[in-house]
Amino acid sequence: MSIGPIGAVGPVGPLLGAGAVSPAASNVSGVSGVSEASTASGTTATSRTGGDFAASLTGAVDNLQQLQSSSNQLAVQAVTGSLDDIHAATIAATRAQVTLEVAAAVRNKGIDAFNEIMRMQA
After folding, report:
1. Are 86 and 78 in contact (CB under 8 A)?
2. d(C-alpha 52, C-alpha 34), whole Å
3. CA–CA separation, 57 and 118 (whole Å)
């Protein structure tokens, strides 16, 4: 059994392993790699492989780059005067900024977790 789609979550959708986020919609598609497995006692457990995590992380970085690229393109259009709707440029810039901040926060938490694991005694 896989987890179904998650509702609109704003600009952090790419960081949750979703597909590309368009300027018009920021929905997260289903989370890949999560499955339900039955154990001998009859309870269920979820499992995730390392490859799925790496793929999700790669997808998140790619989507962040895509958001920044579209933000830059709209900013250039705004400066040259060829942009009809300035709101689109503002929204794209804000999405790229917030997504970058969330990516930096996730990275910092990952580093903190790694450092904490390294401090553990065997």
Report:
1. yes
2. 9
3. 22
Question: How far, rounded to the nearest angstrom, does the alpha carbon of residue 112 sit from its chain's CA centroid?
Answer: 20
In the structure encoding, which two tokens stand for residue 89, read together? 């440029």
Nearest to 52 by CA among 66, 37, 71, 31: 31
Tokens of 55: 């793929």
Query: Over the stretch 29-41, which tens digit does the pLDDT of each residue have?
Result: 333 333 334 444 4
Which parts of the chain have pLDDT scores under 70?
1-49
Task: Classify the phi-psi angles of 85: left when phi > 0, otherwise alpha if psi is within -120 to 50, otherwise beta.
Answer: beta
| Structure confidence by residue, pLDDT tens digits, 2-16 | 444 444 444 444 444
CA distance 37 to 89: 45
End-to-end alpha carbon distance in the chain: 36
